[in-house]
Amino acid sequence: MSAGNLLTDHPALYEARFPDPDRLAGRWVEDCLRRYDAGPRVLDMGCGTGRDAAHLHSAGRTVTGADLSEAMLSYARARHPGPSYVHADLHGFDLGAFDAVVCLDSSLLYCHTNDQLDGFLTSCREALTAGGLLVAEMRNGAYFLGRTDLLDNPKTDSFTWQGTAYRSRTTLTVDRTAQLLRRTRVWTADDGSPPVEQRSAWRLLFPQELRHLLAAHGFEVLELHDGPGPRTEPPWRESELPGTTTDADRLHLVARLHTL
């Protein structure tokens, strides 16, 4: 069994597995930015294939997309032009001045340690202009308090891309000591290629913990809720206002850097 990250190593396959033809995530971010009158300069940290960055660019914003994966960045430049795409680590970055930092699809939760979270938030604080926004979307650590439905049984999924059928089997486990949600995903395909095992983890952040971290770095939380959002069921709809609870499995954050 070979090791790797099948989806991030093959961005076209990633978009096939997670289609977003209506640019729901990008539209949700733009709605947040407009609601709080954010300026035009946006940094999309963990931009992946560039779909959301390109949507924000099409809305008239000046966008920089940043990612660790060179494969993703090359794909973004070719398939979703408009933004500037740069290689950067969300644990610490210096990419210029922005009016908003966006971090979607649990990218923020790749900050596994407190030092890494501090590095990300320090970098955001230094990148943002006074009154700038941090907009993020991620898993909700609080969901796993007393719930095991996502842990009890492996999840299987399948899809077909360019004539090849792909199947995944995903197992989630909670590492309580490290406060991480660990994921093991095994991919198989009907083209004769060997199975690929992918291991990754997200930090389990709890809503009040997140509020405390943001306040310590000079941010005021404007919104923190479990939906509606681009990955909730039912999904967010145009101009739908944010909720008030933080009980479901996704968290949606809008925070403003305090003005001096």
Automatic annotation (TrEMBL):
* InterPro entries the record matches: Methyltransf_25, SAM-dependent_MTases_sf
Give the residue ranges for region: Disordered: 226-245
One Pfam annotation reads: Methyltransf_25
SUPFAM superfamilies tied to this protein = S-adenosyl-L-methionine-dependent methyltransferases
Residue ranges of domain Methyltransferase in the record: 42-132
Ranges of Basic and acidic residues composition bias in the record: 226-240
Coiled-coil ranges per UniProt: none
UniProtKB keywords: Methyltransferase, Transferase
Name assigned to this protein = Class I SAM-dependent methyltransferase
